[in-house]
Amino acid sequence: MADELLAPSGKTLQQLQTALDDENPHTEQGLVLPQVKVKLRCGVEHLKKDDRDVIGVLPPAPGHDEYVMVGAHYDHLGHGGSNSLDRSGEENKIHPGADDNASGVAWVMELAAALSQEHALHPEKFQRGLIFACWSGEEIGLIGSAAFAEHSPISLGKIVAYLNADMVGRLQENRLTIQGVGSSHVWRRMLEKRNVAAGFNLTLQDDPYLPTDVTSFYVKNIPVLSFFTGAHEDYHRPTDTADKINYDGLERIAQFSEKIVSDLEQTKERPDLAKVERKGSVGGGRETLRAYLGTIPDYTTEVKGVKLSGVRGGSPAEKGGVKGGDVIVEFAGQKITNIYDYTYALDAVKIGQPMNMIVERDGQRVTLTVTPEARK
User: Fold this and answer.
1) Are 311 and 323 in contact (CB under 8 A)?
2) Do β-strands 159-165 and 224-228 pair in parallel, antiparallel, or remain unpaired?
3) Rounded Cα distance, 167 and 229, in Å
4) What element of type H or E holds 341?
5) How far is CA 324 from the centre of its chain?
6) What is the mean pLDDT of residues 343-358?
7) In a 3-state reduction of DSSP, which class is residue 202?
8) CATH class of 286-374
């Protein structure tokens, strides 16, 4: 059947397969099939499984009810799967995830041990309590942290800040990246003060909309920080093993983080929430031709439509009045029953052309107008 489809293009399946098997970097990644019409029927199977977040609490001092929260995701890829970047010969091998994200879990445990001991020795110093969290489901869509943020056992208004660690085990050349710094105006001053003694070569990044658990909390109006030591060739591969962890570096990051958390516990003022707007990138490419709205779907809630956990600052969705908690039920004249409907409808719209969006908000249907922009 493949050869029949390829015939008008002059290609054969064997030619294409051989080039791929040889890992030829110049092989075609896709091609047009002229004079070919196909009809497809697709089905989506919904898989439901249970999992657990792991939460520990150190209560605040008597008369106080605010918390600082620290967390990291403990899930990884098992034997691989669709998110694996395994190479030839690595298929179906155990992915240990030593850096991603056993390093972050070790960071949480070390902070929990050190700070609980400090609380026991000097209870008079601390006003705020601590919540320590290890999240599940991060690798498939921030599901664990989003579920907590959506159904928190305490009011989210009592959580003054969330600090996260995702891949903090490969410190190289003393470079430590801290993300989400733009979520509060206090972060830069606090980080620079504590780094005088720590001595890291810091890279501070403003964007709090990240493919890790801080996003679940920033969209709920909580200032966030995320610690990161950088990407490497073992990411999402079976080669992300414990022998490659920089343990001295990880210990230094934990000590640096502990000072920042202690400052947050002892300071009367809450970190303010700063609005971070989407910033465009330089350059063109095919990505800029794709429509962008800035909506952030909530994958933890099953509804008919697409529920949103939030919208990005300065995005077309925010400009059009879309809010976190809205359920999109119609977009650009298309009924939206799930995330797939929404994706297809978004792919079909034209950049710069206003579109109607109908959302359900507090039991009412609300019609909004949004104007897609180019994805950057």
Assistant:
1) yes
2) parallel
3) 6
4) helix 339-348
5) 16
6) 91
7) strand
8) mainly beta
DSSP secondary structure, 157-202, as one string: GGEEEEEEESS-S--BTTEEEEE-GGG-TTHHHHHHHHHHHH--EE
Q: Is 235 helix (H, G, I), strand (E, B) or coil?
A: coil
Superfamily of domain covering 54-266: Zn peptidases (3.40.630.10)
Angle at 48 between CA 345 and CA 210, to 5 degrees: 55
Coil/strand/helix, residue 56: strand
User: What is the chain's alpha carbon radius of gyration, rounded to the nearest angstrom?
Assistant: 24
The DSSP line for 109-163 is HHHHHHHHHHHHH-GGG--SEEEEEEES-GGGTSHHHHHHHHS-SS-GGGEEEEE
Q: How far apart are CA 89 and CA 171, in angstroms?
A: 28
Strand partners, 164: 71, 226
Closest C-alpha to 145, from 94, 217, 89, 82: 217
The interaxial angle of helices 247-266 and 103-121, nearest 10 deg, is 50
The residues, ordered by sequence, that sit 6+ positions from 136 with a Cβ below 8 Å of its Cβ are: 51, 52, 53, 73, 74, 75, 143, 144
Domain residue spans of the chain: 1-41, 54-266, 286-374
64-82 mean pLDDT: 95
- Residue pair 309/326 in contact (Cβ under 8 Å)? The answer is no
Check pLDDT > 70 for residue 283: no
What digits encode the pLDDT tens for the residues 234-271? 999 999 999 999 999 999 999 999 999 999 999 889 99
DSSP 352: T
Provide the β-strand partners of residue 208: none
Greatest Cα pair distance, the chain, in angstroms, is 79
Do the two domains 54-266 and 286-374 of this chain adopt the same fold? Answer: no
Spatial contact of 219 and 153, defined as CB atoms under 8 Å apart: no
SS3 261: helix
How many other C-beta atoms can be found within 10 angstroms of the C-beta atom of residue 101?
29
Place of tokens 């493919």: 211
Backbone angles phi, psi at 355, to 5 degrees: -130, 145
- Residue 82: both structure tokens together: 């669709």
Helix (H, G, I), strand (E, B) or coil at 68: strand
Which two three-digit tokens encode residue 305?
A: 């439509």
Residue 100 has pLDDT above 90, yes or no: yes
Distance CA(114)–CA(207), nearest Å, equals 29
Strands, DSSP E only, in the chain? Answer: 54-58, 67-73, 129-135, 159-165, 175-179, 201-205, 224-228, 291-292, 295-297, 306-311, 327-331, 334-335, 355-361, 364-370, 373-374
